[in-house]
Design brief:
One of its GO terms (molecular function) is carboxypeptidase activity. The protein is an alpha/beta fold. It has 9 helices and 12 strands.
Length: 286
C-alpha cells in the first residue's frame, strides 16, 4: 500500500529549536521540491525563532502538532528542526487523539524524543528521517528514494547496508534514535518498553567520554538486559575524528554480552545520505 499519493497534503513544523530566519530560502526550496513531487505543503506558524532559540513555548509548539494530527486532510507531518527542546511539548500532547488520527510523522536527532513518545503512548509507527535530506548534498538520490518508498510502495529508503559485529540474526520492533536525546525520556511515562526490542543508536557529536556516559546510563536503566539486538548507526564525530576506543569497542565493552546481536551501519544518522528506519515496526536482519 502506498503511504502517500499525488495531491496529498503534508504539514511542516518545528517541535524542537526554532530555525534561523536565514533558513527560509532553504525551506522554500524544500517546499518547491515537495510540490514537484506532487505534495501540497502546509507550514506551521511556529517554525522560525521568535526570541533566543524559541519559536514558541512548549505548549504552543504542541498545539501546532496537534492541529496537524487533527486535520484529516493532512497525510504526513515532517519536522524540520533539531536541537534540544522537543521534550517540552510532550505533556501537552493528546495521545488518544493521535492514536485515533495516525499520520506519517518524520523527524530525527532531538525528535527521537517525540517519535519514540508517539510510539510508546499511541502505538503509532514513526519515521526516523529528516525531510531536509531532499535539499541536501545527496538530494537527487534522496528525492528518488523518497518517491519510490512513500509514493510507489517500494523500499528504497528502508534498505541499508550493515555489517555484523556480533551474532548473525536479529528480529524485533525498533526503538531509539539519537543516543543523547533518546535518554531524555528516561524515567518518564513517554519512554518505550524495551522488552524484546531492537535498539537503534546514532549520534552527530560526542567524544569517548560522552559516549561512555550515555551507554552506561542505558546499562543502568536495564536496557541491555531487555533488548534483543542493537543497530549502531553513524557516530559522526567519533568516526570522523577516529577516536579511540571506537564506538563499536565501547558498546561491546559496556554491553558486555556476546549473546546480544549487534550490527553497524553508516547509512542511518545525521548524514545527508541517511536512510529511513521505522520506530515501532518490526525489523529482521540476517
Amino acid at each position: 500500500m502506498k503511504r502517500l499519493n499525488y495531491g496529498d497534503k503534508v504539514g511542516i513544523l518545528a517541535c524542537s529549536n526554532g530555525l534561523d530566519k536565514n533558513m527560509e530560502v532553504k525551506i522554500n526550496k524544500l517546499k518547491k521540491i515537495l510540490n514537484e513531487i506532487g505534495l501540497k505543503v502546509v507550514f506551521s506558524n511556529k517554525i522560525f525563532k521568535k526570541y533566543s532559540i524559541f519559536n514558541g513555548s512548549g505548549k504552543e509548539r504542541a498545539i501546532e502538532l496537534m492541529k496537524f494530527f487533527q486535520d484529516k486532510s493532512i497525510k504526513a507531518i515532517f519536522d524540520i528542526s533539531g536541537g534540544d527542546l522537543s521534550n517540552g511539548i510532550l505533556e501537552y500532547l493528546d495521545f488518544d487523539i493521535i492514536k485515533k488520527n495516525p499520520k506519517l510523522f518524520f523527524g530525527y536527532s532531538d525528535l527521537s524524543v517525540v517519535i519514540n513518545a508517539l510510539y510508546a503512548k499511541s502505538g503509532v509507527e514513526t519515521y526516523l528521517y529528516q525531510i531536509r535530506n531532499l535539499i541536501g548534498d545527496n538530494s537527487k538520490i534522496q528525492i528518488k528514494d523518497f518517491i519510490e518508498t512513500f509514493m510507489e510502495n517500494k523500499k528504497s529508503l528502508f534498505k541499508f547496508e550493515y555489517e555484523w559485529i556480533q551474532g548473525k540474526f536479529m528480529n524485533g520492533i525498533v526503538v531509539g534514535g539519537n543516543i543523547r536525546c533518546f535518554l531524555k525520556l528516561a524515567g518518564t511515562e513517554y519512554i518505550p518498553n524495551f522488552k524484546d526490542k531492537i535498539l537503534l543508536l546514532e549520534s552527530l557529536s560526542g567524544d569517548v567520554a560522552k559516549m561512555t556516559t550515555y551507554l552506561t546510563q542505558y546499562k543502568q536503566l536495564g536496557v541491555f538486559k531487555d533488548i534483543k539486538g542493537i543497530i549502531l548507526g553513524s557516530f559522526t564525530e567519533m568516526e570522523n575524528k577516529k577516536y579511540s576506543p571506537s564506538i563499536i569497542e565501547l558498546v561491546q565493552e559496556i554491553v558486555n554480552n556476546p549473546n546480544i546481536p549487534i550490527v553497524k551501519t553508516s547509512e542511518i544518522g545525521h548524514d545527508s545520505d541517511s536512510k529511513c528506519i521505522v520506530i515501532g515496526k518490526n525489523i529482521e536482519l540476517k
